[in-house]
Amino acid sequence: MTPEEWAAFLEVHNDLPREGPGAPQDVQWAVQQLGLSGVLDVFDAGCGPGADTVTLAETLPEARIRAVDTTDTFVAQAQARVARFGDRVRVELASMADADGPYDLIWCAGALYFLGVTEGLTLWRDALKPGGHVVFSEPVALGPLSAEAAAFWEEYPQITDLAGIEARVNAAGYRVLGHRMIVGAPWQTYYDPMVARMDHLRATAMDPMVLAAVEENQTEVDRWRAARDEIAYALLIVAPE
Q1: Tell me, what CATH number does 93's domain have?
Q2: pTM tops 0.85, yes or no
Q3: To pair with 126 at 20 to 30 A between CA atoms, which of 59, 145, 202, 218?
Q4: Between vectors from CA 166 to CA 164 and to CA 167, what angle results, nearest 5°?
Q5: 205, 154, 209, 206: which is closest to 2 by C-alpha?
Q6: Greatest C-alpha distance within the chain
Q7: Residue 122's closest CA among 5, 3, 238?
Q8: Are 185 and 16 in contact, with CB atoms under 8 Å apart?
Q9: Residue 128 lies in domain
């Protein structure tokens, strides 16, 4: 993607609540499953504009949270959203590969595929405290892909079923402790603000690259709508063996 194309992409995604499907209930489920509470160190890897960072801070009110993203626009938005939590929550322009730690929890919503499941988990092993966990979401095939679902995932040929994700987890020396599917409503919640933003840009934007980015994102939305019951992320809780 050229700098101009990236700028157009960011214009479409400007000030969206999230940069991927999900809901506060996903964070709350993981925290409940792990029985987390008290003073903890948490790393939000690839935080986007900070939706899950806020939920982590609310759900774990004594936790110290470091959130990172490599897009300065998203970092600025996330910093504004978490300002009310004071210095126990900080958002930085940094790579999620550069986890310092040690952390009780590494949270990564819809971003680990940038590193690769096995590769990212391997990198993060030394950033976890003894007894620490990683919770991440990853594209998952719920069954044989229809033509519509295959079209949606055409830019992610690595997609597998849940067993395939677990194999990649195991290859990093981790085990899966639990999972839940992100399908349907959380994707609608992600796409609805984007559609409203695109409608606004169609009416106001003059830059042809921005309008091209609008149509590219519209294609993604249309493909999701055509196979919405098949398009899913798996949210997994994993820990080193």
Answers
A1: 3.40.50.150
A2: yes
A3: 59
A4: 65
A5: 209
A6: 54
A7: 238
A8: no
A9: 3-240
